[in-house]
Amino acid sequence: xxxxxxxxxxxxxxxxxxxxxxxxxxxxxxxxxxxxxxxxxxxxxxxxxxxxxxxxxxxxxxxxxxxxxxxxxxxxxxxxxxxxxxxxxxxxxxxxxxxxxxxxxxxxxxxxxxxxxxxxxxxxxxxxxxxxxxxxxxxxxxxxxxxxxxxxxxxxxxxxxxxxxxxxxxxxxxxxxxxxxxxxxxxxxxxxxxxxxxxxxxxxxxxxxxxxxxxxxxxxxxxxxxxxxxxxxxxxxxxxxxxxxxxxxxxxxxx
Length: 255
What we know:
Blueprint: H1 27-31, H2 44-55, E1 64-69, E2 72-77, H3 83-96, E3 100-105, E4 111-115, H4 116-132, E5 141-145, H5 149-161, E6 165-169, H6 174-184, E7 188-192, E8 195-197, E9 200-202, H7 204-212, E10 220-224, E11 242-245
Parallel strand pairs: 5-6, 5-7, 7-10, 10-11
Antiparallel strand pairs: 1-2, 3-4, 8-9
């Protein structure tokens, strides 16, 4: 990086190493790509307008593509959409409900295959369960789970309800979790009994209990039964935080 003594002069980044090699993909691979070199010939505004209206479902169409006042930018002004609808329902309504949304394999070797129809059904059920617990538009939610399908289901359910959420890595400590819950003023925490990591179980619920004791805004803790092992405590260090199982009507466990 080059610097000058004049504070008003911008700092420029000098390239330390030039890379001129090119690695063209196989023709068969390129033929299945969603984009080709032709996109670079399209008008900037036309490209992003067309792509947004082709690939995204809008409940209310946008009236202005963007407002760009450096360093701030706003895109698709006036538009209204739901991320969960676009990730799930859009594909089911297009007749792709039987298409696999994702394959999942847990550390112990357990497997699940979820189609878009499966995903829609489980997201709707879990969203309904969260709504029964008082979660709605604007309700801040914390998610502290392992890499299980219910993690994605919980995220999509929150997005469906308009509930802002923060996802905290399941390997983080109780202290790290409590800080994030407090910063966002989360009212609900979604977690699980235990998770698998490197051949051993991690007591996520125990860490969640400790974190909740330092996060005064959390009033409800939703728990997924993942391993079914260990001694799962259904009490929390603070009586105002009520633990509950995976909401009724939602998938009860990943075994």
